[in-house]
Amino acid sequence: RVHSINDLMDYRAFRKALAEGKRVAIMGAGLIGCEFANDLRNGGYEVDVIAPDPSLMPSLLPEAAAGAVQAELERLGVRFHLGTVVERVEHQGSGVGLTLGNGEQLQADLVVSAVGLRPRTELAREAGIRSGRGIQVNRALETSAPDVFALGDCAEVDGRVLLYVLPLMACARALAKTLAGTRTEVSYGTMPVMVKTPCCPTAVCPPPMDAEGEWQVEQDGADVKALFRSPDGDTLGFAVTGRFALEKQTLAKEVPPIHRD
User: Sheet harboring 214-220: ordered strands across?
Assistant: First the structure.
């Protein structure tokens, strides 16, 4: 009764198992957990989200933006249990009972495990291909083995593992040219991440992990515009929700690209 959903076959199995159910517990309040919560509520399901961090999408959003998304999801009917974890899942009739670390007891028909992605590197390692956090490739997506390439969620491109659609598309275009005979290195520009929570449209371009600076926040209810400014006043990242999400393209032009050619 606990489902991890990473491909269409997983999703098909989840929907089949949910055919007679109405209650879903989601473990994880990251990007995927929040998107599932929004979609399932729109479908009329009861949704509980359990996560160890005190705020949503902690690796992506500053506190104000995370609070705005949470408030709108709660307005939609999602119930959050933050700052705790699922300690036990047990069969309970036709569904399951969940025991949380804070002592709460929940009931659900199914559980969705949305606790994050981790590149699958076992096959590459067994083949002797260098791997770190992902399968290590250069900017041309070449692994340490001749004529073997890697891209997507499994690839660590020039030291970066970016688990989003835009980097994958950039890699696919570059690799297509390479395979067609013109060796081409991928170049990442500024790549905002779109969080697909229609109840609170959200876009974020996280600052580099080692960046110095602070968030400057403008807020009107669920409409948040947060800019990460360097000590020199440069915009190194942003997070926008609600009506401010419309400014994502303009703000993306102010943020330096991931790769500089």
Answer: 193-195, 202-205, 235-241, 223-229, 214-220
